[in-house]
Automatic annotation (TrEMBL):
Gene3D superfamilies: 1.20.120.1490. InterPro entries: LTXXQ, Metal_resist. The keyword Signal applies. Keywords: Signal. This is Signaling pathway modulator ZraP. Residues 1-22 form the signal peptide. Belongs to the ZraP family.
Length: 144
């Protein structure tokens, strides 16, 4: 029993890191891509320059963190191998967690950079839109 609790704890942490590794859901890839949809561009009254800047930020993010189902499967397989091993490998677990943390930090930076492109009014409109989508259950981080 005393070995089971730490293993369950690590398994829980790893499953959360896997979710983070998978990236934002429902946004079509990088966190800023939904801003490049025509409807959102119109609602936020984004200028061509803003759209161009957001596109560059999103493309740079995707160059480092591509939407690659093979990479997600490899990550998942690594986690499963760790859980099925005879002994628990702390270094391997830390590496898997670090990979998820790195991506989460990059996603936060992307969102910050996109906010810098938007005016205060556009940021408020975007936040209102995100809150509305979370209430509907379509936001990646909202409660469903």
């Amino acid at each position: 029993m005393s070995k089971l609790i730490p293993q369950l704890l690590i398994a829980g942490v790893l499953s959360f890191s896997a979710a983070a590794f998978a990236g934002p859901h429902g946004s079509g890839g990088a966190a800023g891509h939904f801003l490049l949809k025509e409807r959102v561009i119109e609602k936020l009254s984004l200028s061509e320059e803003q759209v161009s800047q957001i596109r560059v930020l999103a493309e740079n993010y995707e160059a480092v963190y591509p939407r690659d189902s093979r990479a997600r499967e490899e990550h998942r397989a690594s986690m499963q191998a760790l859980m099925n091993a005879e002994t628990f490998d702390n270094a391997a677990a830390a590496e898997l967690v670090d990979a998820g943390d790195e991506r989460r930090i990059a996603t936060m930076k992307l969102r910050f950079d996109i906010n810098q492109v938007l005016s205060d009014a556009q940021q408020e409109q975007l936040h209102a839109f995100q809150r509305k989508m979370q209430k509907r259950g379509k936001g990646g981080s909202g409660k469903r």
